[in-house]
Write a structure and sequence with these properties.
Sc_DH/Rdtase_CS, Rossmann fold, single chain, carbonyl reductase (NADPH) activity, SDR_fam, signal, oxidoreductase
């Protein structure tokens, strides 16, 4: 799987450095330089399913999904693809702290057919796929990394 420098930079901007410039700024630079490529925004399964006590989180992630779809439509003519990855709980350091209590995690895990939360590599590998030429015809899509949460 070959990945261009632009795609690697997009990965770093949006996943490793969440305080990086908004995707529209990066897209403007890509257009100005005539650089095709891909942008992957990190959303959440919570953009597709209401979760109690998560009104702001769910609504902002839904907005990110729609922004990504509009960007896909607008940037497609510039050969720039835009997608989202939508993971369930990810076992980052923060994820382990917030979800290590079996009593708290049991209800969420019961709704995930694969019976586990995502690992960081699950998200990274999905992002790399969407940045690669292997997904050359994929734009405006949300890739669920939820172990089946949304089908349960």
């Amino acid at each position: 799987m070959m990945i261009s420098l632009v795609r690697i930079l997009a990965f770093f901007f949006f996943f490793l450095f969440p305080s990086s410039p908004p995707p529209q700024i990066v897209a403007r630079q890509m257009i100005a330089q005539g650089v095709p490529g891909a942008i992957v925004n990190v959303s959440s399964q919570a953009s597709k399913r209401a979760l109690r006590d998560h009104a702001v989180y769910c609504s902002t992630k839904s907005a990110l999904d729609m922004l990504s779809q509009v960007m896909a439509m607008e940037l497609g003519p510039h050969k720039i693809r835009v997608n989202t990855v939508n993971p369930t709980v990810v076992m980052t350091d923060m994820g382990r702290i917030n979800w290590s209590d079996p009593q708290k995690s049991a209800a969420m895990l019961a709704r995930i057919p694969l019976g586990k939360f995502a690992e960081v590599d699950d998200v990274v590998n999905s992002i790399l796929f969407l940045l690669s030429d292997e997904s050359a015809m994929t734009t405006g899509s949300s890739l669920m990394i939820d172990g089946g949460f949304l089908v349960s």
